[in-house]
Amino acid sequence: MRIEVLFDKEAKNKTLRTGWGVSFLVEEKVLFDTGENGAWLTENMKILNVNIDKIKAVVISHDHWDHQGGLWELLKRKKGLTIYACPNFSAEFKDKAKKLNGNLKGTKNITETSKNIFVTGEITGEYKGEYMPEQALVVKTNKGISVITGCAHPGIIKMLNTVKKNFPKEDIYAVLGGFHLMDKDKMLIEIIADEFKKIGVKKVGATHCSGPRAEEIFKLKYKKDFLPIKAGAEIKV
Ligand SMILES: [Zn+2]
Ligand SMILES: [Zn+2]
Fold this sequence. Notes:
By secondary structure, this protein is of the alpha/beta class. It has a single domain, classed as Metallo-beta-lactamase, Chain A (4-Layer Sandwich), CATH 3.60.15.10. 28% of the residues lie in helices and 26% in strands. It has seven helices and 15 strands. The strands form three sheets. Strands 6-5-4-3-2-1-15 form a seven-stranded mixed sheet. Strands 7-8-11-12-13-14 form a six-stranded mixed sheet. It has a two-stranded antiparallel ribbon with strand order 9-10. Strand 2 and strand 3 form a beta hairpin. Helix 6 crosses helix 7. 46% of the residues are buried. The structure holds zinc ion (2 copies). The site of one zinc ion has 9 residues, from helix 2.
């Protein structure tokens, strides 16, 4: 399957907008997160020849501005768009989605959004002392399963273990997205990277809030299997 990076802190060329947050498009039909700004996201979509009409659903990883920020502009352009959100997202998020005629679906457990494209459902997490539920996207192909994360506030290893529990027979091929290791020290990041190896993750694309230190450590450990994530990049899984 084809995963396109629509928004990131870096881009493959200067015409593309960059900023905080991420947005990944899977097989032209399932969008995972929307970055911080709808105008910038839709600009990138235009440059990358993304057909908004083909997008069947948007999965929002968690209720933070840099992940749901672009959603509102999309809802204005695509009436009745299906949104997969965690049941415990804020009332403000839910009200706004409903006001803009979004078809809001709360995902408590693993849910197939489209053939072989799943969302984990709510995983409990915390951010700065507050409850912050989060979900990841899981793509199943003959290479194994690939996981895309927003910020991984519940903890990236906890999220991978949840995915493993749901797909006990599958190997994890790639893990892409934000791992929220920005404020973690070198030793802890190395333990986490070793844990990735133990779990059997074959390719890693750390970006966003993973932080420069974690990107460096994963790059060293994964060498050619480290996937650079930038707006305009494409990953085959
Ligand atoms: Zn984030
Ligand atoms: Zn976040």
